[in-house]
């Protein structure tokens, strides 16, 4: 039996957490979601991965505007992580600004996903996750 | 009186004696004439004393050596008659030399008779009265010198006679004038005519001055103007001549009108320059020499270096805190002789004298000062402080950055909750299928529809506000050439889908290159085209035509449609923020599109306006400056 995909989701908005779950479900991703409500919570989690023998998540979904440490700052830490440095990371944000996209790319994001305001569009995030995991 | 020559010397016996007389007695003149008074002999004495050579002398009438007065008085004739009658006629007095000078002699005319007693001629013997002649020569010399001076000097010189009565000046007149008089006083001297008669308005002061000189004998020098004499200016030296009772005054004068006028013109222009300097709102300072000593600084400049001594001091001593940048320009101008211009030149120094250097910016022109031989001897600095402008701009830039940030935050953070509302409104509709009763489901769907519609409008508003705010910032926009052809191209591709949907026919004539920005101007076209498609006449395919026409020096671009149009009384109102002529359920919109157009066009110095009639289509016009060659 295939192990469920370990996904770390950095997202402070419960509404978006629910939508992410829906999108993953819609595309039949089998996952276990570790939701971090701010950047430092996520950083602490990653320390546990390094020192405490926890497994490294298979994929990261980080909200750009995460409190305390934002998605890009977290991403920089992540890229330097000895065990998880090469995992796929999707920066999610409602901003369509070019400057935000560039910031994410520069920090080493695998993808930048602008949260759409249309429900159907939002569901496509599930497809993106599938695509990255299966690649 | 000694008789020099014995009377009745017979003719022919004279030669040795005659020669002896001439050669031994240097101051004796002796010659003979015939009975009619024509000279019959000549000797070196004639030449030495009278100045005549033999050829000029022989056969001349003896009148030659008489003064005009004596000739008129027939003295030669009388002398000869007396000698003929009485044997000899003593003579004394001045005779004329060939050169016109007088010769004072004494002597006698002696009759020469033949043995029969017939008069055959005369013997003239004259002794030069040397002392008298020298004195006369000196007098003449002095008089000639005076004459030469009188005639030769460039100044006007005249002798005037002053008429007065019990000390009151009545009049004066010129009694003698030199040739230069007319040159200095173009109206001439009118010798002998009384001045009051000739110049009734001649200033009283002239009469008084000459009266004073005539009375006191004290010379005076003055400069005066005479209105009657063509308002000429004279520099005059007046002194008394001759005895006081004669009331003669010598007047030496020069016409100094030109000098006075140019002095006045110079003074006037200097005053004007000083006025300009004093009132100029720009600071002006003149530096001289390699030490940059301040020669002149106007009040505006003094205000820039509050309370510091300037004139006569080295610039380095006046403003020791001045930076190398300024010195570099100073030396550049001095070394090359080229003017230098610095805009928004950053010159930190202590302006208010509190010992603390502040930031200042200036627009400055440094200009070399050249000597007549071309060498650069200093420089003049003209500057105006622009610190307040710079600060205002910096503040504005700060404000704009803040606005930009705000716009960015707004676009992100305002959209964020809307996204939630919209997504979950959709979820509500989707999950309504689980509900028990269809009625409730229908009602939910309706409500969710309202929510979604509200969100969409809010999103459109935020998007347009953002677009509007983007036309506010970027003050540093540069006016470049923008192809309206290209701008329209971008706009057409943006409205392509909508145009296809409505079956619109969009055509355009040739479009020019204007001053502006293609992206911004494409927004103008895009908004105007969107409106043309939106406000189309129901049941009719939209037709839009874009054209451009050069009017005066600007291009007027027109976008004409065949839509529903509007009442022309709203023509101005529609460009206002959030101004709409229709309900949202008729024609959705934010009321920002035309406001954005107006802002963009006005930022490039143009205007935008519209004309229309209801149901007759609308035409929007905007003007822009033609592009640079």
Number of strands of chain B: 21
Give the rounded overall mean pLDDT of chain A.
Answer: 90
What sequence of helices (H) and strands (E) makes up the elements of chain A? EHEHEHEHEHH
Profile the largest sheet of chain B: 5 strands, antiparallel
Uncertain runs of chain B are 1-13
Helix content of chain B: 40-55%
Instruction: Work out the radius of gyration of chain A.
Output: 14 Å
Question: What is the 3D shape of chain A?
Answer: globular
Draw up the topology in text.
The complex is a heterodimer of chains A (135) and B (629).
Chain A: E1 5-10, H1 14-26, E2 31-36, H2 39-51, E3 59-63, H3 71-79, E4 89-93, H4 98-107, E5 111-114, H5 119-122, H6 124-134
Helix pairs in contact in A: 1-6, 2-3
Chain B: H1 15-24, E1 28-34, H2 44-50, H3 54-57, H4 68-72, H5 75-86, E2 88-96, E3 102-113, E4 119-128, H6 130-152, E5 156-165, E6 168-177, H7 180-184, H8 195-198, H9 204-216, E7 220-226, E8 232-241, E9 248-255, H10 257-279, E10 283-288, E11 293-297, H11 299-304, H12 315-318, H13 324-336, E12 340-346, E13 361-370, E14 376-385, H14 387-431, H15 438-472, E15 480-483, H16 484-494, H17 496-502, E16 505-508, E17 513-516, H18 518-534, E18 543-551, E19 554-561, H19 593-603, E20 608-612, E21 618-625
Parallel strand pairs in B: 16-18
Antiparallel strand pairs in B: 1-4, 2-3, 3-4, 5-6, 5-9, 7-8, 8-9, 10-11, 10-14, 12-13, 13-14, 15-17, 18-19, 19-21, 20-21
Helix pairs in contact in B: 14-15, 15-19, 16-18, 18-19
Task: Describe the 3D structure.
The complex is a heterodimer of chains A (135) and B (629). Chain A is of the alpha/beta class. In chain A, 44% of the residues lie in helices and 19% in strands. Chain A has helices at 14-26, 39-51, 71-79, 98-107, 119-122, 124-134; strands at residues 5-10, 31-36, 59-63, 89-93, 111-114. Chain A has a five-stranded parallel beta sheet, sandwiched between helices. In chain A, strand 3 (59-63), helix 3 and strand 4 (89-93) form a beta-alpha-beta unit. The radius of gyration of chain A is 14 Å and the shape is globular. The model of chain A has no long low-confidence stretch (mean pLDDT 90). In chain B, the strands form five sheets. A five-stranded antiparallel beta sheet of chain B has the order 6-5-9-8-7. In chain B, helix 14 (387-431) packs antiparallel against helix 15 (438-472), helix 16 (484-494) packs across helix 18 (518-534) and helix 18 packs antiparallel against helix 19 (593-603). By secondary structure, chain B is of the alpha+beta class. Chain B is rod-shaped and about 190 Å long. Chain A binds chain B through residues 13, 15-16, 19, 65, 93-97, 115-120, 122, and chain B through 408, 411-412, 415-416, 418-420, 422-424, 426-427, 430, 455, 459.
């Amino acid at each position: 039996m295939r192990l469920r995909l370990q996904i770390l989701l950095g997202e402070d908005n419960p509404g978006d957490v629910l939508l992410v779950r829906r999108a993953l479900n819609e595309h039949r991703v089998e996952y276990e979601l570790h939701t971090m409500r701010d950047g430092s919570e996520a950083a602490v989690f990653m320390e546990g991965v390094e020192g405490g023998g926890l497994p490294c998540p298979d994929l990261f979904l980080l909200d750009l505007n995460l409190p305390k440490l934002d998605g890009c700052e977290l991403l920089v830490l992540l890229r330097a992580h000895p065990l998880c440095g090469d995992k796929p990371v999707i920066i999610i944000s409602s901003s369509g600004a070019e400057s935000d996209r560039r910031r994410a790319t520069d920090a080493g994001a695998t993808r930048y996903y602008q949260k759409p305001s249309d429900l159907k569009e939002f569901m496509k995030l599930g497809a993106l996750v599938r695509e990255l995991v299966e690649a | 009186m000694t008789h020099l020559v014995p009377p009745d010397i017979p003719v022919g016996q004279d030669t040795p004696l005659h020669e002896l007389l001439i050669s031994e007695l240097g101051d004796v003149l002796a010659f003979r004439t015939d009975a009619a008074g024509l000279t019959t002999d000549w000797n070196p004495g004639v030449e030495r004393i009278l100045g005549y050579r033999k050829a000029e002398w022989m056969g001349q009438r003896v009148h030659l050596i008489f003064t005009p007065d004596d000739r008129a008085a027939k003295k030669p004739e009388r002398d000869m008659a007396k000698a003929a009658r009485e044997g000899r006629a003593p003579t004394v007095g001045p005779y004329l030399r060939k050169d016109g000078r007088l010769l004072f002699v004494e002597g006698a005319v002696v009759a020469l008779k033949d043995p029969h007693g017939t008069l055959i001629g005369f013997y003239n013997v004259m002794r030069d009265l040397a002392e008298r002649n020298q004195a006369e020569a000196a007098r003449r010399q002095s008089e000639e010198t005076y004459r030469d001076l009188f005639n030769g000097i460039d100044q006007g010189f005249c002798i005037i006679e002053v008429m007065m009565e019990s000390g009151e000046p009545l009049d004066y007149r010129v009694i003698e004038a030199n040739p230069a008089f007319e040159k200095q006083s173009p109206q001439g001297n009118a010798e002998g005519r009384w001045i009051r008669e000739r110049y009734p308005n001649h200033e009283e002061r002239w009469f008084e001055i000459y009266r004073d000189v005539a009375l006191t004998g004290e010379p005076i020098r003055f400069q005066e103007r005479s209105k009657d004499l063509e308002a000429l200016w004279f520099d005059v030296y007046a002194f008394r001549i001759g005895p006081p009772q004669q009331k003669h005054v010598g007047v030496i004068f020069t016409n100094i009108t030109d000098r006075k006028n140019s002095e006045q013109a110079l003074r006037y222009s200097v005053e004007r320059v000083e006025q300009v300097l004093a009132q100029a709102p720009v600071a002006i300072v003149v530096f001289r020499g390699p030490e940059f000593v301040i020669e002149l600084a106007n009040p505006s400049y003094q205000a820039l270096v509050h309370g510091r001594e300037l004139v006569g001091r080295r610039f380095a001593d006046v403003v020791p805190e001045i930076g190398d940048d300024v010195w570099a320009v100073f030396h550049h101008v001095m070394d090359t002789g080229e003017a230098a211009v610095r805009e928004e030149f950053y010159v930190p120094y202590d302006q208010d004298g509190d010992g603390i250097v502040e930031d200042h910016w200036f627009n400055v022109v440094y200009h070399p000062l050249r000597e007549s031989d071309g060498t650069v001897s200093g420089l003049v600095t003209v500057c105006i402080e622009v610190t307040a402008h710079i600060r205002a701009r910096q503040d504005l830039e700060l404000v704009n950055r803040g606005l930009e940030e705000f716009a960015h935050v707004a676009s992100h953070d305002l959209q964020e909750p809307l996204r939630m509302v919209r997504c979950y409104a959709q979820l509500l509709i989707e999950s309504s299928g689980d509900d028990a009763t269809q009625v409730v489901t229908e009602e939910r769907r309706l409500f969710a529809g309202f929510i979604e519609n509200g969100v969409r409008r809010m999103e459109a508003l935020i998007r347009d506000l953002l677009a509007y705010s983007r036309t506010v910032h970027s003050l540093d926009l540069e006016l470049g050439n923008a192809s309206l052809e290209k701008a329209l191209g971008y706009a057409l591709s943006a409205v392509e889908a909508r145009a296809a949907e409505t079956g619109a026919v969009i055509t355009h004539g040739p479009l020019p290159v204007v001053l502006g920005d293609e992206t911004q101007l494409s927004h103008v076209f895009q908004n105007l085209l969107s409106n043309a498609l939106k406000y189309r006449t129901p049941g009719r395919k939209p037709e839009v035509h874009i054209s451009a026409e050069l009017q005066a020096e600007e291009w007027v671009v027109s976008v004409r449609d065949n839509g529903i149009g509007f009442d022309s009384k709203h023509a101005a109102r529609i460009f206002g923020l959030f101004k709409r002529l229709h309900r949202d359920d008729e024609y959705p919109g934010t009321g920002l599109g035309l406001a954005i157009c107006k802002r963009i066009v006005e930022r490039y110095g143009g205007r935008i306006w519209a004309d229309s009639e209801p149901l007759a289509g609308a035409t929007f016009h905007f003007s822009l400056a033609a592009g640079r060659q």
